[in-house]
Amino acid sequence: MTFSIMTKTVKTGVEAGVATLTLNRPKEMNSFDADTARAIVEAVDGFAADADVRVLVVAGEGPSFSAGGDFNWVLTWPNLDAITRRVGADAMMGAVQAVYDFPKHSIARVHGAAVGGGSYLATRCDLIVAKRNVRLGMREIQGGEQSGG
Questions:
Q1: Residue 61's closest CA among 118, 34, 22?
Q2: Which residues are CB-neighbours of 87 under 8 A, at least 6 positions away?
Q3: How do residues 2-22 score in pLDDT, each as one tens digit?
């Protein structure tokens, strides 16, 4: 069995036991909206069930790995009811949790920036392979300051 999905926001494939999940929103720095988060969960769950998959590689198209939550999407939340906001937050957290719970080996192939939820997505993998100029940032840890590394 070989699992593969292709959405507007996520590309996947399997070759020689290596599954690839590539975030495909380069203009938005591969940030998550609800559709992207759901596609990540669907892909990771499919790869987990695929006996041919031995390892998962998570990557991003364009200049950055991922900026985490899509601010344009999140900025609509104050006008939404509490249940809809919760569903949105759960979708983003679910994408990160799916990678963390993946029962096989996982590798984040990081370039550019991995900030906010993007840094959580990368650090939930078993291994990070990164270019020298990568910026990882978790604003909540830095008290609002962006970190670099």
A1: 22
A2: 34
A3: 555 667 899 999 999 999 999
